[in-house]
Design brief:
Length: about 190
C-alpha cells in the first residue's frame, strides 16, 4: 500500500507488469485499489491465470493483458480454436479439476513439437534423427495454441493478442481471432 501511495505521489499514471506472476500482481492491484489508486493496469501475459480474478476481486476489472498464447481456459476460445478445446478436454480427462495454467500449455505445446519431429524422423528414429528434424521446424504454433515462432532459428513469437477483464471474466479485445502480427514493436527482431 505504501509503495502504491508513493508511486501516485511521484506521478505514476499507469502500471505495466511483465516479470512477475498472477498472485503477486493481484496483491499489487488490490493494494492500489484500496488506496484509491485507479491507474490503467497492463500485464505482460502474467495475469491470464484462472486464479487471478478471484484473487483480485473487483480490482481486476479493466486489467489489460497482452499474451502470446491462446486464451486456454476460456470457453469462447475453445469454440474457435480446436487446439484449445483438445487441451481443455485432455487436461480435464487426465487431471479432473486441475487448474489450466501456462505451465500446462507449454508442456502440451512442447510435447506437440517433439511428436512433430519424431514423426518426421520416421518409424526407426534415433535421437540424432529427432534432433535433426527439430532443427528444420521454422514455424510452430501448436495448432493455434501459441503465437507463431521459429524454434529452429531460436526466434520467439512477434505476434500477440489482447484481453481485458470485463464483467469479471477475461474477454478478447484484439484481434477477433488468432494473433496480431502487425508490427515489430512487440519484439525487436534484431
Amino acid at each position: 500500500s505504501a509503495d502504491c501511495v508513493g508511486m501516485q505521489r511521484q506521478g505514476v499514471k499507469m502500471i505495466y507488469v511483465m516479470a512477475s506472476y498472477a498472485p503477486s500482481f493481484a496483491r499489487l492491484l488490490t493494494a492500489a485499489r484500496q488506496q484509491s489508486v485507479d491507474w490503467p493496469s497492463l500485464a505482460g501475459g502474467i495475469a491470464y491465470d484462472q486464479g487471478f480474478i478471484s484473487r483480485s476481486g473487483a480490482a481486476a476489472e479493466g486489467v489489460y493483458n497482452d499474451q502470446q498464447f491462446a486464451m486456454f481456459f476460456n470457453q469462447d476460445e475453445a469454440a474457435r480454436v480446436p487446439a484449445v478445446k483438445d487441451f481443455q478436454t485432455w487436461t480435464n480427462t487426465v487431471a479432473p479439476g486441475e487448474k489450466l495454467d501456462l505451465f500446462a500449455v507449454y508442456g502440451w505445446s512442447s510435447a506437440q513439437l517433439f511428436v512433430q519431429a519424431l514423426k518426421a524422423a520416421g518409424p526407426k528414429a534415433k535421437r540424432a534423427d529427432v534432433l535433426a528434424q527439430l532443427r528444420k521446424i521454422t514455424s510452430f504454433d501448436a495448432d493455434g495454441m501459441l503465437a507463431p515462432a521459429n524454434p529452429a532459428g531460436k526466434k520467439p513469437p512477434t505476434c500477440w493478442l489482447g484481453a481485458v477483464v470485463k464483467g469479471g471474466k477475461w474477454t478478447r479485445v484484439t484481434p477477433a481471432n488468432g494473433f496480431r502480427c502487425d508490427g515489430s514493436y512487440y519484439y525487436d527482431k534484431g
